[in-house]
Amino acid sequence: MSSVDSTRIGFRDALLHLAKEREDIVFVSTDSLKVVKGEPFLEVFPDRVIELGISEQNGVGVASGLASSGLLPYICTYAGFLTMRACEQMRTFVSYPNLKVRFVGANGGLHGGNREGVSHQFIEDVGILRTMPNFTILCPADGNQVYQAMLASVDIEGPVYIRIGSGREEKVFPDGTPFPLGKIRTLIDEGSDVALFCHGFITNRVIEAAKQLKEEGVGVKVVEVATIKPLDQAGIATILEKTGCAVTIEDHTIINGLGSAIAEVIAEGNPAYLVRLGLQDVYGESGFPDELLDAYGMSVQDIVEGAKRAIKHTKV
Amino acid sequence: MDLEALNAISLQLRRDVVEMVYRTKDGHPGPSFSVADIITALYFEVMNIDSSNPDMIDRDRFVLSKGHSCPVLYAALARRGYFPVEDLYTLRYLHSKLQGHPYAPKTKGLDATTGSLGNGVSIGLGMALAARIQKQANLVYVVTGDGELGEGMIWEAAMAASHQKAANLTVFIDNNNYQSGGTVSEISGPYPIEDKWKAFGWHTQSIDGHDISQILHAVEKAKEERERPSAIICKTVKGNGVSFMVGENSWHKRVYTDEEYRIAMKELGGVV
User: Fold this and answer.
1) What SS3 class is residue A229?
2) Which Pfam families match (chain B) (predicted)?
């Protein structure tokens, strides 16, 4: 069991681990091997790295051909170069024929893209993929959870997307904590005044906010939704029934991400008041990761206030 | 199979296309005819395939990158025994196994889902690289259009295939000089086609895409290559085989009237 502090290393180490057990795994690189510090993989499995150069659409097309021939390709590069530049290839040549291709998208969110600026900050990836049938979408919280998500998802039929970051994520879970594939996970259960739903590299902030809320006497639940698709609707409905209000916190546009997913559950028979935190239909800018989250409405204080707002509306 | 028999099959496949389009009132007959001889050569002579074992791991693979030509591919699959010929007359109908553009999970014998242009060379490259990794000797064939060469992804794949030394990949370019909106000369200007592939590091040949003996010979030459992928530029005629379809680009996608159906079938050696 590796101890990893970064989502990129978590992916790399898990791939190495899996490839030692299975001969069908190949890494498709669009000059992206270095992004995940993949040199050790190349050293051990030189014949199982396919370097295509900077050509993401081609990369996804090649991955489609590899998968249809019985291999299990992992293609990892920046999230938007996959989900936007190669969006159609992901849809028509992987999702539609339901092929087993694994997509690992780096620089998820403002935190992931940070100082690179908007062209490298991907706040739409989850929303885009939510519209594609057959996809499993995983948003682990830290490096170890990426590692565990890789192990948990290896045999899923059809395409899988795993969101990773820049490598600057805070560790949330102890080493070896399993990834709850397909299920929500309650991280804090201190009452039923409000539920905080979250995923990804912002989970540490939500836990911090929950501690503050608890100190102020608020009965708070923190619920991780690391599998965005298929969504654990029953699990979410059970939480909503108890709290009657919720806050979603995601480093992603609030349109069609976690906030929208929870809103859909609410609208379809599980009424609750909802506050959605995340990018409010705006782009980010360059900055340090934590600074950006603070500046764009995802500070610990924003989460605390969001929770109070939700509770206030519910009680009225 | 001798040339006479192969030529007879290519006429049969064209008649099947006419019948499909006439009965189901939809489909792309013109683009089907320009690749009819290439597909005949591949499916009835060149490719190592077995309709009783369609998932055979070391089978040769085929990717119709210009997916809209699929009526003739469907006809080839039916005549090769993958499914009953009767099924051809369900083309584009609700719940048919024959989608408007190729969808591999539904159609026995299809290796790739295609339709959106520009993607097939990458998919074929993935199959070719898979064969190398799996230490299989199978070969991969792709057919693209000439108008399709306007898609940038073709050239991403062309560069990568050459860099990867994917000698087990052969791409036929169906150079019928037409695309949906007119001639490729007018609209997209891909010429000189052979020089472009050559510049990308491919082994290239230019042939008459309606001469099956030339197609077979070019395939053999491609097989001799050990380092480079092969591009076979096929001079073709959109609508080839039916006089009133040649030079009339509306047959890119058009349905036969009763009279046109009778004439087409007669010209293709059929009994109406």
Assistant:
1) strand
2) Transketolase_N (PF00456)
